[in-house]
Amino acid sequence: MRRFRPDLTWSDVTPKAAFLNRRQLIAGAAALGFAGPAAAKLSYAPSSYSTDAEPNTFEQITRYNNFYEFGTGKDEPMAYAGQLTTDPWAVKIDGLVEKPGDYDLADLLKGVALEERIYRFRCVEAWSMVVPWIGFELSEILERVGVQPGAKYVAFETLVRPEEMPGQNYPILDWPYREGLRLDEAMNPLTILATGLYGEEMPKQNGAPIRLVVPWKYGFKSIKSIVRISLTEAQPPCTWNMLQPREYGFYSNVNPEVDHPRWSQATERRIGGGLFAGRELTLMFNGYGDEVASLYAGQDLTKDF
Amino acid sequence: MSVADRINRAARRLPAWPIYLIGAALPVWLFWQGTTGGLGIDPVKAIEQRLGLWALKLIVAGLCITPLRRFAGVNLIRYRRAIGLVAFFYVVLHFLTWLVLDMGLLWSQALGDIAKRPYVTVGMVGLLALMPLALTSNDWSVRRLGALRWRLLHRLTYLAAIAGAVHFLWLVKAWPVEPFLYLGAVLGLLALRAIPRRGRTAA
């Protein structure tokens, strides 16, 4: 999937007029914040890691979300995320790093090279989308804060603020939402911290102001609204893995041959295809095998699922 | 006049046939909404889930009728057949939506899921349990079987209701409240039936 297309931007892929038009139609709901009122335009470069598949629309990406902090329904994040305060925002970076501290988001983003990464996104629930993220490689930040030699894993935490995140008033998950990656996974160039999509600041229901995107893993690994990044020696606890270890492994790589105990992962439904689109075959590592298969050489992925 | 008497009086005047009419119209409306963008970003799941939920609600409603008569003196028995048949109709549509729209007629995966995935298996058990009930929901069958055997056969409703509620609980991620409410309602309504009738039990 490595195809270098330096002359293309997202506007070549999706007609901008079409998506702006849609936003005017839903302008009344903009007060809720889901369209990111007055969202700042981001400047970014195209990336050779982008897929040439056609992205889902802005509307599909921002109105069909799993973000249990705002409720378990797919439309609840869009309905309730508007009240989330994302400025000021700080990210605590601690653990086995040279320069730990509470970093203001603006400082963290200073000097990073924003790129557009059009990635396939595969949910563990067997649906998928294509999302034009704006972000930068996680390794940029990790290199800047300095990873100590003993570090083997990176742990992430989502904000806990029940007064703005109504879903956190219920013990549906063990808050804060936690996720983690092995250090080599975190350093892989496909792994990004995203701060926007469709050329604009990240909509709140998609994990504003900063979220992880790991395109070869099931969507729940791509943790949203991050407030803490810790470098650790031991494998960190992860929310879904803690809840049902038999169903959600630490790795959770997209793998059509390892089924979820309760449903098949061999195929997926691409969101936006209409009533009769049917299913597509799910690809190993969500189609990113060229970039990441070597990370798991020698591992039995039916055990390390 | 008591509330129960008033309801019974009103029920005598209201026929059951509108239930079939509305029951048939709702899926048409649902499907039309699905093709015109009225069901959100994922109309396939919306149609599938709504049909399943409607079926479960109707099954719970059907299970209410006997306890209402026994404990509240409200007699809605004339609507029970219509409620049951519409519930079955929705279960069949729910299954077809899964097979055609969700599975995209991938027969091997669909059959594999029915055999391997407990929540799909349980759902199929519920559908199969309802089949003989739908086939015998007519006056001719009641006469043919005799009231006693007919009633015995129609206790399969209990199995179908439990299967439906377990199917719902088993397919969700984490432990949301809603499926527990349905399972609780089904089990509660079945438990009411286990209360012995006065005068029939010894001591």
Structure, explained:
The complex is a heterodimer of chains A (305) and B (203). By secondary structure, chain A is an alpha+beta fold. Chain A has one domain (10-292): Sulfite Oxidase, Chain A, domain 2 (Alpha-Beta Complex). In chain A, 17% of the residues lie in helices and 22% in strands. Chain A has nine helices and 13 strands. In chain A, the strands form two sheets. In chain A, strands 1, 4, 5, 8, 9, 10, 12 and 13 form an eight-stranded mixed beta sheet that branches. Chain A starts with 9 loop residues before the first helix and ends in a 13-residue tail after the last helix. Residues 22-38 of chain A have low confidence and may be disordered. Chain B has 203 residues and is mainly α. Chain B has one domain (3-194). Chain B is 78% helix and 0% strand. In chain B, helix 5 crosses helix 6 (118-135) and helix 9 packs antiparallel against helix 10. The radius of gyration of chain B is 19 Å and the shape is globular. The mean pLDDT of chain B is 94. The A-B interface holds A 59-60, 63-64, 68, 72, 74-75, 125, 127, 172-173, 243, 262-264, 266-267, 269, 271-272, 274-279 and B 34-35, 40-45, 47, 101-106, 109, 112-113, 117-119, 170-171, 173-176.
Which regions of chain B contain 5 or more consecutive residues with pLDDT less than 50? none
- Assembly form of the protein: heterodimer
Q: What value does the Rg of chain A take, in angstroms?
A: 18 Å
Total discrete domains of chain A: 1
Assign the CATH class of chain A: Alpha Beta
Family (chain B): Belongs to the MsrQ family.
Protein name (chain B): Protein-methionine-sulfoxide reductase heme-binding subunit MsrQ
Keywords (chain B): Cell membrane, Electron transport, Flavoprotein, FMN, Heme, Iron, Membrane, Metal-binding, Transmembrane, Transmembrane helix, Transport
Membrane topology (chain B): Multi-pass membrane protein
